[in-house]
Amino acid sequence: MRSFVLHNPTVTIQDTSIVFAFAGLGHSLTSPFVGFLQDKKRLGLQGTAVVGASLVALATLASSMATSVFELASLNAVLGVGVAFAYTCPLVSGYALMPDRKGTVSGFVVAGFGAGAAVFDAVATAVVNPSNTPPDPATGYYGEAREK
């Protein structure tokens, strides 16, 4: 795998913000339709969760092989679609369990979504780069990593 940022010095901060915006775009454009697909006659809760998790996993894997900002932005849009599918499952389940407390359920689901991102950042750093070593300035890689 190669880092397109390492091999393309023209990538800017604005380019990276566009990449993240595409994830939000995929999520927001898909969310209204997920409820329709989630009805029991179609995908159901389990099917929706499987589709969402599969799209997130595939987009994440494919993103590691992206060689341009356009590819990465497109894959982040797919990731956003996957998040839209997976995001509705805890909401619908919580609403079914606590029909009179939908606001509380929504609050906990949204808080869990945000907390998951914060916790995952620390977990990913601990797994991938436990000593938080900076990359080698000459190569741009961490440790013994080499481009194949």
The domain count comes to 1
Number of discrete helical segments: 5
Q: Mean of the pLDDT scores?
A: 85
Q: Report the uncertain regions.
A: none
Rg, alpha carbons:
18 Å
Largest sheet: none
Fraction of residues in β-strands: under 5%
Topology order in helix (H) and strand (E) letters: HHHHH
Shape: elongated
What are its keywords?
72% helix
Write a brief structural summary.
This protein has one domain.
Describe this structure in words.
The chain has one domain. It is 72% helix and 0% strand. It has five helices and no strands. It has helices at residues 4-7, 13-38, 44-63, 69-97, 102-128. α2 packs parallel to α4, α3 (44-63) runs antiparallel to α4 and α4 crosses α5.
Topology summary:
Elements: H1 4-7, H2 13-38, H3 44-63, H4 69-97, H5 102-128
Helix pairs in contact: 2-4, 3-4, 4-5
